[in-house]
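Saturday, quiet lab. Running sequence design on the structure tokens for the scaffold JK sent over.
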């Protein structure tokens, strides 16, 4: 694959190899090797798996000569009812589940989890199984329908499922929304390739964005994509997703161009407080998520308070 960039200065007779992409290539090889093993074991147990993000994109719409940067982990979707089976299988393969102490969400509430594989005492690989694409309280996704329209496929000749190109586009957009459109270039490139090479039907994507209540995020992502790749003919779909003028202006104030969020140096929670009232579709999704979010923050505060009191008493 085209991960090694060589820059040659013929006048100075110098040659520089970008070691970052050598690292990326090696990371891909190791991660994909272990993911293939996992897929084989999952298939034997009747567990359905669909690769997400880089694991899907690098083996579908990116060519061998195109790089996507470092692949930090392997994300994949499983059926919600098979979530516990996947955790057991990964443990049997030698992965150790990582529990974030400062994340005030129970196992029941989490839509993803992290498993690390350790080599020489250090975490070398991370697998992130998802039972949902995003927190269900934020976006109402029909997972029965999502799995029903998924496609039986392979990953390096091992059976798996692939979500439709439209669903991958919306997942990329939701991921951008979750991370406040920080450094959106790679995700915009992903969406561009899903449109060009994944043969995504944007009429379906627009309709489904409204169904998943991420139409404002989709409008902003497509608007930035149009500015990023002017030759892409998506104006009609941008207009079909456009919120009212006030919301459009406010969103473009915070995210004026493909450089991303204007106040990227602010903390995650501060960025969410500024962006979520604008980016979530309407009042009901915002109220629903805020109620859930406030509950988590209160529990988080209580946990920290109890920890502090325990530390003082000891």
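Result came back. Writing it out in full:
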């Amino acid at each position: 694959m085209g991960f090694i960039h060589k820059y040659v200065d013929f006048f100075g007779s110098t040659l520089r190899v970008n070691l970052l992409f050598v690292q990326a290539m090696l990371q891909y090889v190791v991660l994909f090797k272990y993911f293939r093993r996992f897929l084989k074991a999952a298939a034997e147990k009747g567990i359905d798996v669909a690769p997400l993000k880089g694991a899907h994109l690098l083996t579908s719409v990116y060519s061998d000569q195109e790089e996507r940067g470092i692949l930090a982990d392997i994300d994949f979707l499983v059926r919600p009812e098979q979530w516990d089976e996947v955790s057991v299988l990964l443990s049997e393969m030698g992965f150790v589940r990582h529990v974030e102490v400062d994340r005030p969400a129970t196992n029941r509430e989490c839509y993803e989890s992290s498993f690390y594989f350790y080599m020489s005492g250090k975490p070398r690989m991370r697998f992130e199984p998802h039972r949902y694409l995003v927190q269900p309280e934020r976006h109402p996704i029909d997972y029965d329908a999502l799995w029903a329209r998924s496609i039986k496929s392979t990953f390096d000749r091992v059976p798996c499922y692939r979500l439709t190109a439209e669903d991958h586009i919306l997942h990329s957009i939701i991921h951008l929304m979750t991370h406040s459109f920080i450094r959106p270039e790679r995700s915009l490139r992903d969406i561009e390739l899903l449109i060009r090479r994944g043969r995504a039907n944007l009429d379906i994507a627009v309709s489904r964005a409204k169904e998943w209540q991420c139409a404002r995020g989709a409008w902003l992502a497509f608007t930035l994509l149009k500015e990023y790749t002017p030759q892409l003919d998506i104006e009609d779909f941008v207009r079909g997703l456009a919120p009212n003028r006030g919301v459009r202006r406010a969103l473009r104030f915070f995210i004026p161009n493909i450089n991303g969020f204007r106040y990227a140096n602010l903390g995650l929670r501060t960025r969410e407080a500024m962006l979520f009232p604008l980016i979530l579709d309407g009042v009901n999704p915002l109220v629903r998520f805020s109620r859930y979010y406030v509950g988590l923050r209160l529990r988080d505060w209580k946990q920290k308070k109890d920890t502090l009191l325990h530390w003082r008493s000891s």
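Notes for JK: The domain at 21-134+156-163 is CATH 3.30.460 (Beta Polymerase; domain 2). The first strand starts at residue 6 and ends at 9. Ask whether to fix the surface positions before the next round.
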